[in-house]
Amino acid sequence: MMTDLRTYELNKKEQIVVYACMGISAIVLSMLLYRNILFSLLIIPFASKIKAFTEEHLAGRRRKRYLAEFKDFLFMASTAIGAGRSMKDAIGESIPSLANIHGDDAVLVSDLCKAYERMDKGRENDVAVLSEMADASGLEDVSDFVTIYAICKSSGASLIIALNRAASVIMEKMSIENEIEELVKRKESEGFVILIMPVLVLLFLNLFAPDYIAPMYETVAGRVIMSICAAGTAGVFVMIKRITGIEI
């Protein structure tokens, strides 16, 4: 089966890293906000959501890498088809080059190997195999490519021109995305400063004026205020991620 890029499942090593980071962060914040390690257990109900957020973030990064690999594949396939190769042969010839550029563990390299084997040994229809790969990727550009290829194959239109045009469109889209990402990163950096400042102030007071901040830890009202501040900070973080979560 082709790799499903719409979801991402953490492997055991990644799960250990994620849960370790959760635990350490929870202990640090618990000591900083309440001076009681038991409050770190409050993260348990949110562990699954944090894990899901991490998987969603990693899935997005993988789709972006996949699209960059796919753009290179289109140029390679266009060259091979221009030399008279079939789509199956173009895929087979592009695999070593893509592996050299993006590594043997690249997702597209793995999917193309599966596609080539099914076309070569299984004698499956190339359009059907590529359509399955496009559906699994969940990427509009890949689906458009398969549609264009199917139309060109059935109508006899120039596939070389279509492939080059598709690669150019992907490059333009990636260029726009990079520009937007630069703007988003600036706003995220500003948001990170806003988020980290209360933590730094609290740490500073604990280190250099513990008596001044003591009522926040020794009274019920102080703990409530700390909890409200923590919830507010988490809410701001969620809002920042939603505002900067721009897709093209």
Describe this protein's structure.
- This protein is mostly helical.
- The protein is 80% helix and 0% strand.
- It contains ten helices and no strands.
- The relative contact order is 0.09.
- Helix 1 packs across helix 2, helix 5 (126-137) runs antiparallel to helix 6 and helix 6 (140-155) packs antiparallel against helix 7.
Break the fold down into its secondary structure elements and pairings.
Blueprint: H1 12-34, H2 47-82, H3 87-102, H4 107-120, H5 126-137, H6 140-155, H7 159-208, H8 210-213, H9 215-218, H10 220-243
Helix pairs in contact: 1-2, 2-3, 2-7, 3-4, 4-5, 5-6, 6-7, 7-10
List its traits.
10 helices; 248 residues
Low-confidence stretches: none
For the record, give the distance between the C-alpha atoms at the N and C termini, rounded to a whole number. 28 Å
Task: Please tell me how large the radius of gyration is.
Answer: 25 Å
The best one-word shape is: elongated
Question: What class, by secondary structure content?
Answer: mainly alpha
DSSP E strands, number: 0
